[in-house]
Structure to design on (310 residues):
């Protein structure tokens, strides 16, 4: 496994152009499995791994309280590794292919109301000017565009605010798309950029392949995904009636509010960068649930009888 894992990760980087964020997660999952194998039976080549060993590994994770979604992701990572090794002639059978993925409870996405979302994005004001403006721009951009937190962290100044209120995003699978960005978010980004110190000439005149991060920490380096998550969590905690949320809740809010406003699912699918329409369709369940709650609370004859109709 010592040789197989680096080869696989390099294959993802060089041949498949997978994002650094995804490669990092694959590496974490695979090294965790490698450590389990070493602790269980010692050093082992890929040909010595079977389905029973993978099931034992996943069962141990379940016992430790790891979420079903995380276990499913780790299994998918192992399937990808052994598929690659099979293609390279290292193994004859993919031992992960016969292992069933855990069932995952279908949870409705957490989202904010329009009023809550507006109050959240207008929060940053107590910090020193530059970081208050940065956090405001982050929150406005997440809610205005619905992009993923990894997509926001990857934004560079070179991507620019395109004409006609658009911004270029590098999404999952390194797929590029252009999404609309609202006036409030555009103004917040411009105000933030104007607060930044001038770039040194040596940096400004560097190679065109060098990309300048849009959202930066106090050292001028690109904000990590985790740092962006902390920004959202911090400002959501400032509002007493809003539980601490993740950037994904702003993505859910973006989609739900578009649907409430009459946008069609296909358009929302394209804006979110979903490959499958079924992924986008869960927002219809959110909208339906909200309609039913409003109906039940407001209509005098809406309360359901506990006995079912014949």
């Amino acid at each position: 496994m010592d040789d197989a894992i680096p080869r696989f990760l390099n294959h993802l980087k060089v041949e498949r152009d997978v994002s650094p964020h995804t490669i990092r997660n694959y590496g974490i999952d695979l090294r965790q499995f490698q450590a389990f194998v070493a602790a269980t039976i010692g050093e082992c080549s890929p040909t010595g791994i079977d389905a029973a060993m993978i099931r034992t590994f996943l069962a141990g994770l379940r016992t430790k309280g790891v979420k079903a979604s995380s276990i499913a992701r780790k299994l998918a990572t192992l399937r990808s590794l052994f598929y690659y090794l099979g293609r390279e002639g290292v193994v004859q059978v993919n031992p992960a292919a016969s292992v069933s993925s855990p069932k995952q409870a279908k949870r409705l996405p957490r989202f904010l109301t329009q009023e809550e979302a507006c109050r959240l994005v207008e929060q940053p004001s107590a910090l020193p000017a530059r970081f208050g403006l940065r956090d405001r721009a982050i929150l406005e951009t997440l809610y205005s565009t619905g992009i993923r937190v990894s997509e926001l962290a990857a934004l560079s100044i070179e991507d620019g605010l395109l004409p006609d209120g658009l911004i270029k995003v590098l999404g999952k699978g390194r797929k590029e798309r252009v999404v609309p960005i609202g006036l409030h978010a555009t103004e917040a980004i411009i105000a933030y950029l104007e607060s930044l110190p001038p770039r040194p000439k040596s940096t400004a005149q560097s190679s065109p392949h060098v990309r300048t991060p849009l959202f930066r920490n106090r050292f001028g380096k690109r904000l990590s995904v985790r740092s962006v998550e902390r920004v959202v969590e911090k400002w959501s905690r400032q509002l007493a009636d809003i539980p601490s949320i993740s950037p994904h809740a702003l993505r859910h809010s973006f989609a739900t509010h578009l649907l409430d406003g009459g946008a069609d699912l296909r358009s929302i699918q394209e804006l979110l960068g979903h490959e499958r329409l079924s992924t986008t369709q869960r927002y219809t369940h959110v909208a339906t649930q909200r309609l039913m709650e409003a109906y039940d609370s407001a209509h005098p004859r809406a309360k359901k009888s506990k006995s079912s109709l014949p």
